[in-house]
């Protein structure tokens, strides 16, 4: 059985991925907070000795690097931390490891003026999170012949452990009859973490390298997405009120017309992008 090291194992995508690869690989997860039920090594990825020691001891065949500072406003406020967590570890990993390396990037490497984007469209991040993710991509492209960079956008899940997820927040608010505001001017093609995990597993099994985009089959605003979730969960969508991104006065700028075109990955895998509607139905039927 191949050995796979999964950083960011406690995150939204990390957990879904582990659920889907469990039993197929010899797994070691890492994050600062323990994940029950899998072999796990607790530590901070921004500590060079921690990551290099794990790689030396576990000697993975594959590294899937999910760990990242994902709070976009915090990245803007604490730029040095964002670089320590999002960029440096990639450099350290590639210094000591030359096996198959999988990195998850984002549509935030684009400015969001003309999305959805193709892989080779001009990159122009407008916030620190996007800049750090792009720096990590560049390191991989310059140092690793054996790397897969998979850009994705707006991940969603609905499970007990994804406390910060958009779907959890929305469903919980509407169930409590709490009115919420959601932006009408940010567009992406959201993807369910389980669908993304399955795509990743296929790419890993084929040892695909290079740069790919992935996302769901619908290009919609966050507001339309919120309404769609409410309708599927049979909750009162009138509690969702429209707001513009500018009105939120967030620390970091947001790309507005983001999202990713997925023709290249569809060609390689021979399947179309996962359906957003079907993902929501599957989530509800498994409740
Ligand atoms: N969520 C999205 O919509 C989205 C969209 C595009 C791309 N992505 C990318 O997809 C990947 C997974 O995202 P996600 O939504 O699963 O993120 P997430 O839920 O925020 O999880 C982030 C993971 O990184 C770990 N981490 C953060 N700082 C760390 C540190 N200093 N040391 C060790 N581990 C650390 C966290 O664990 P601890 O806090 O326990 O340490 C957690 O396991 C990320 O690379 C992200 O940039 C996400």
Description:
- This protein is α/β, with parallel strands linked by helices and 287 residues long.
- It has a domain at 3-157 and 189-217 and 259-274: 3-Layer(aba) Sandwich (Rossmann fold), CATH 3.40.50.
- 39% of the residues lie in helices and 18% in strands.
- It has helices at residues 12-21, 48-58, 72-77, 79-86, 88-96, 128-143, 166-175, 193-205, 222-232, 263-269, 276-285, and strands spanning 3-7, 26-31, 40-42, 62-65, 100-106, 147-152, 155-156, 180-183, 187-188, 191-192, 210-213, 220-221, 240-243.
- The chain has a seven-stranded parallel beta sheet with strand order 3-2-1-4-5-6-11, with helices on both faces. The chain has a two-stranded parallel sheet with strand order 7-10. The chain has a two-stranded parallel ribbon with strand order 8-13.
- Helix 6 (128-143) links the parallel strand 5 and strand 6 (147-152).
- The chain is globular, with a radius of gyration of 18 Å.
- The structure holds NADP nicotinamide-adenine-dinucleotide phosphate (NAP).
- NADP nicotinamide-adenine-dinucleotide phosphate is lined by residues 8-14, 31-33, 44-46, 66-70, 85, 104, 106, 152-155.
